Amino acid sequence: MHLQPLSLLLLLLVAGAAEVCLGLTTTLHDFRGCAVREFSFVAQKPGCKGLRISTEACWGRCHTWEKPVPDPPYIHRHHRVCTYSRIRHMTARLPGCLPNVSPLYHYPMALHCHCAGCSTQDTECETF
């Protein structure tokens, strides 16, 4: 079957729209993988008032074959987590800061995420 350029473009647009719809109808509970997602938080530091910030952050689940070992010999595991692979450093100005407190608040904005070992340099890594 030979498609004209306009027909091919229309087919690609329809296929792309179907993929977007599938992505929008998938609930966050059912999502598997690691992706950039909008995230809001209150930026706070001593001596300043808080400021609600909306940014992009990494969110998702990463597949692993490792099993936790809560009993001796307590084998140390390195579970992969959804974390930053590319970020943009952002700065916000907090309101109501005391005269001797800098109003600048620095935070990362996710540009791309991937599954990798947890790094305490840019991610809160909890041990259970």
Give short descriptive properties of this protein.
16% helix; 128 residues; disordered N terminus; two-stranded antiparallel ribbon; 4 strands; alpha+beta
How would you characterize the overall build of this protein?
The protein is an alpha+beta fold and 128 residues long. The protein is 16% helix and 39% strand. It is built from 1 helix and 4 strands. The chain has one helix at 5-25, and strands at 33-43, 51-61, 80-93, 104-117. It has a two-stranded antiparallel ribbon with strand order 1-2. It has a two-stranded antiparallel sheet with strand order 3-4. Strand 1 and strand 2 (51-61) form a beta hairpin. The longest helix is centred in the first third of the chain and has 21 residues, at 5-25.
How many strand units? 4
How would you sum up the major sheet? 2 strands, antiparallel
Strand content: 35-45%
Gyration radius, to the nearest Å?
A: 21 Å
